[in-house]
TrEMBL record:
HAMAP family in the cross-refs: GlmS (MF_00164)
Protein name per its UniProtKB record: Glutamine--fructose-6-phosphate aminotransferase [isomerizing]
Entry function: Catalyzes the first step in hexosamine metabolism, converting fructose-6P into glucosamine-6P using glutamine as a nitrogen source.
Domain called Glutamine amidotransferase type-2: residue spans: 2-217
Enzyme Commission code: 2.6.1.16
Single GO biological process annotation from the record: UDP-N-acetylglucosamine metabolic process
Keywords: Aminotransferase, Cytoplasm, Glutamine amidotransferase, Repeat, Transferase
A GO-annotated cellular component: cytosol
Gene: glmS
Active site, UniProt feature: C2 (nucleophile), K596 (for fru-6p isomerization activity)
Source species: Bacillus mesophilus
One Pfam family it belongs to: SIS
Length: 601
């Protein structure tokens, strides 16, 4: 979702800001802008659409060593130049960028800004006008900023410029992520360390309800009450090459191909000296102590959670419920006596999940976050964290983070089983090793996946994925992947459920992608395929060797325990979705309307 950058130093800020915004493009946006300050005051450039359009609009002749920038993913007001950030106060003295949602903006407008005329439909403009109002009332700018923040309800990350001061960027956050980066003779602001990796890898984390005064030479963090807070910087363990596409045409394809390496990295990171895959003692103990695990997640991470339930129940014999985070808060189930909450989130910033985390922490329960981003909000605010070690995932459609989530959940389940003295018939490390090698073979079969995509999906308006048992969950993930990047209407269905209504949608030629990787349901799913074929569907069966039949379209060959076939069957599904999107000339890495890091509820 929206992204923020800022620079204050000796160089011209424009290029640094634009390059920073380009690094945030992956989060999803529909307009972008920058504001820079020099001795002539502030200059704002903003455009609807891509950063490339903004680049063309920026006046090269303006040289300014201070600036802020923003990518906007519309919430209040349509995507447009007027609604794009930065926004300015009426006198144009103050210029501001904001991520998040100000929930009480209408009340604030009514109570404090009567008579002020607004240019945009955004909630953000209220913030900059409030700051100007408090300055006009006699406050110093820092106090005016604080007074404004105290009134805001909702989420925000803010960077603010005063056109009368070329040596300060004012920064604050609540619930939305924001970092300050440190350099020699300069400092930067960024929603994500990736944005400013071009100039620094030293970052300071900001906490909610702090304000930060960033100058060329210093970074001063204060609470809203005015107490100065000392906080040591950390080194962002990111390699610049991790965030480049290299020779790949798209990040998504690169990330699909990275999955075997990610799996091996996970094995390496979680293996103890005895060669066992284990988690930290305190996490193990939390698993042993709980009487029920509640998995909370959204989208693809929710689908990984459904597989996590299978692992934790079947391997560790602990009951599990899986919940969509946006539903949980107001639809909370009756909780068990000793619940353990597991939050699964690639970004670690998903606002829906964070809202649940805040709620369950207030209720006094323990929480574990499984995330790809160390230091992310969900990681910081939970009691424990398990990292995915997947490296930055840039494509909006999650691929390697999903398989990493599934693998880490299997390790958590295996370790809990060991702690509970439950005998397991397989060696997890060996199984995951087999999976990694088999993934490589699948990734090498791109030509075949491309053919399947062309054959089944180049012109269709819809598509169904069906499966039974754990294949059903992979089908749900397949449908999400396909629809989000190719815009084909796709649904993942339990094979047996189709005939209870949805079969009415099957027409001559409707593609049905059926997954058959589990012996126990093999006959069942094949029966379901026959039912839809009898009604004209065009079936594409993806099966495991040993369960395959003559007309299966793709057969996965790997001698792996049945619990881990989802880590394999998802690869053809990801690749088929990728090629379907390519055939339809869609923007694979940046699908319309979507954001990578969903930081609003
Ligand atoms: C789909 C996708 C999304 C995310 C969801 C949760 O490809 O990426 O469905 O899985 O928005 O995001 P995280 O995992 O960051 O909490």
């Amino acid at each position: 979702m929206c992204g923020i950058v800022g620079y204050i130093g000796k160089q011209d800020s424009k290029e640094i800001l634009l390059r920073g915004l380009e690094k945030l493009e992956y989060r999803g946006y529909d307009s972008a802008g920058i504001a820079v300050v020099n001795e002539n005051g502030v200059q704002v450039f903003k455009e609807k659409g891509r950063i490339a359009t903004l680049r063309e609009a920026v006046d090269e002749a303006v040289i300014a060593p201070v600036g802020i920038g923003h990518t906007r993913w519309a919430t209040h007001g349509v995507p447009s130049k007027v609604n794009a950030h930065p926004h300015q106060s009426s006198s144009e003295r103050f210029t501001l960028v904001h991520n998040g949602v100000i929930e009480n903006y209408n009340h604030l407008k009514r109570d404090y800004l009567d008579g002020v005329s607004f240019k945009s439909d955004t909630d953000t403009e209220i913030v900059v006008q409030l700051i100007e109002k408090f300055v006009n009332d006699g406050h110093q700018i820092e106090d005016a900023f604080k007074e404004t923040l105290k009134l805001l309800k909702g989420s925000y990350a803010i960077a603010l410029l005063d056109n009368q001061d070329q040596n300060t960027i004012y920064v604050a956050k609540n619930k939305s992520p924001l970092l300050v980066g440190l350099g020699d003779d300069f400092n930067v602001v960024a929603s994500d360390a990736m944005a400013m990796l071009q100039v620094t890898n030293q970052y300071v984390e900001l906490m909610d309800k702090e304000i930060v005064i960033v100058t060329r030479e210093s970074v001063t963090i204060k609470t809203l009450e005015g107490r100065v807070v000392e906080r040591a910087p950390y080194t962002a363990e990111l390699d610049a090459s991790d965030i480049e596409k290299g020779t790949y045409p798209h990040y998504m394809l690169k990330e699909i191909d990275e999955q075997p390496a990610v799996l091996r990295k996970i094995i390496g990171n979680y293996r103890n000296d005895n060669g066992e895959l284990t988690v930290d003692e305190e996490i193990r103990q939390a698993m042993v102590d709980t009487d029920r695990v509640y998995i909370i997640a959204a989208g693809t991470s929710y689908h990984a959670g459904l597989l996590g339930k299978q692992y934790i129940e079947k391997i560790a014999q602990i009951p599990v419920e899986v919940h969509i985070s946006s539903e949980f808060s107001y639809n909370m189930p009756l909780l068990s006596g000793k619940p353990l909450f597991i939050f699964i989130s690639q970004s670690g910033e998903t606002a829906d999940s964070r809202a649940v985390l805040v709620q369950v922490k207030e209720m006094g329960y323990k929480a574990l976050t499984i995330t790809n981003v160390q230091g992310s909000t969900l990681s910081r605010e939970a009691d424990f964290t398990l990292l995915l070690h997947a490296g930055p995932e840039i494509a909006v459609a999650s691929t390697k983070a999903y398989t990493a989530q599934v693998a880490v959940l299997s390790i958590l389940a295996r370790d809990a089983a060991r702690a509970k003295g439950i005998e397991i018939s397989f060696d997890l490390s060996k199984e995951l090793g087999i999976v990694a090698s088999a993934m490589e073979t699948l990734c090498d079969d791109k030509e075949e996946m491309e053919k399947i995509a062309r054959e089944y999906l180049s012109t269709t308006r819809n598509c169904f994925f069906i499966g039974r048992g754990i294949d059903y969950y992979v089908g749900m993930e397949g449908a999400l992947k396909l629809k989000e990047i190719s815009y084909i209407q796709a649904e993942g269905f339990a094979g047996g459920e189709l005939k209870h209504g949805t079969i009415a949608l099957i027409e001559e030629g409707t593609p049905i992608i059926a997954l058959a990787t589990q012996e126990i349901v093999n006959l069942g799913i094949r029966g379901n395929v026959k039912e839809v074929v009898a009604r004209g569907a065009n079936p594409c069966i993806i099966s495991m060797k040993g369960l395959n039949e003559e007309d299966d379209r793709y057969v996965i060959s790997a001698d792996v325990h049945e619990l881990f076939t989802p880590l394999l069957s998802v690869i053809p599904v990801q690749l088929i979705s990728y090629y379907a999107a390519l055939h339809r000339e869609c923007d694979v890495d940046k699908p319309r309307n979507l954001a990578k890091s969903v930081t609003v509820e």
